[in-house]
Design goal:
about 20% strand, Rossmann fold, alpha/beta, binds guanosine-5'-monophosphate, about 210 residues, disordered C terminus
């Protein structure tokens, strides 16, 4: 699949301001967002990736402060109470939130900043920071998403079912996003995402396209 095939715009006149430095990457659980983020972390140190706080337990290989800050419910309540989260949401039985201060500091310093968050979080960012670029990462097909989610083998069946249900809702919200990248190849998605973040004027978009 070519670049143009994997890029869908929901608006033929997508407004890509050069000053736009905050990018939100969203999409259904299992689509490969964290793989894309890990690849960007490895290959593009100039992009700052926000580290979210979550009440979810760490998966094997995850470390505190790298993939997430792992918190208990009391700590998460405290962060909400103190208004320290830019946005937060409950997803499949756990809470996730973006610490506000580090994001605002990076944006003030002109650092390209990426948030990998769910649909509810993306909607909150759309409201509070309307200049942010919202990117939807879509699976090539629904069957592929299901296969990836089950293949991961890290979640019990009831959690997978909840994530698939949330995925249906997330996929239906795709038109709310500025741009869709179809995850046929991690390298391709990273390349496009970096182009969007670092040279938004250079992005040409054309048609709405279905997966
Ligand atoms: P996972 O448990 O698979 O790491 O993440 C579950 C979902 O939570 C994913 O869709 C991920 O994008 C989302 N998520 C991760 N961090 C945040 C956050 O800070 N805020 C919101 N709203 N969603 C998040």
């Amino acid at each position: 699949m070519s670049w143009s095939d994997s890029l869908r715009a929901h608006d033929t006149q997508v407004d890509l301001l050069p000053s736009r430095r905050l990018t939100v990457l969203s999409g259904p659980s299992g689509v490969g967002k964290s793989t894309v983020v890990a690849e960007i972390r490895r290959s593009h140190p100039e992009v700052w990736l926000s580290v979210s706080v979550t009440t979810r337990k760490p998966r094997p290989g995850e470390s505190h402060g790298v993939q997430y800050f792992f918190a208990d419910d009391d700590e998460f309540d405290r962060l909400i109470e103190a208004d320290e989260l830019l946005e937060w949401a409950e997803f499949a039985g756990n809470r996730y939130g973006t610490p506000r201060r580090p994001v605002l500091d990076r944006l003030t310093n002109g650092v390209p900043t990426l948030l990998e968050i769910d649909l509810q979080g993306a909607r909150q960012v759309r409201k509070t920071m309307p200049e942010a670029l919202l990117v939807f990462l879509a699976p090539p097909t629904w069957e592929e998403l299901e296969r990836r989610l089950r293949g991961r083998g890290t979640e019990p069946e009831d959690v997978i079912e909840r994530r698939l249900a949330a995925g249906r809702v997330e996929c239906a919200a795709e038109p709310e996003f500025d741009i869709t990248l179809v995850n046929t190849s991690v390298q391709d998605v990273c390349h496009r995402l970096i182009a969007l973040m670092t040279d938004p004027q250079g992005v040409t978009t054309s048609t709405n396209r279905e997966v």
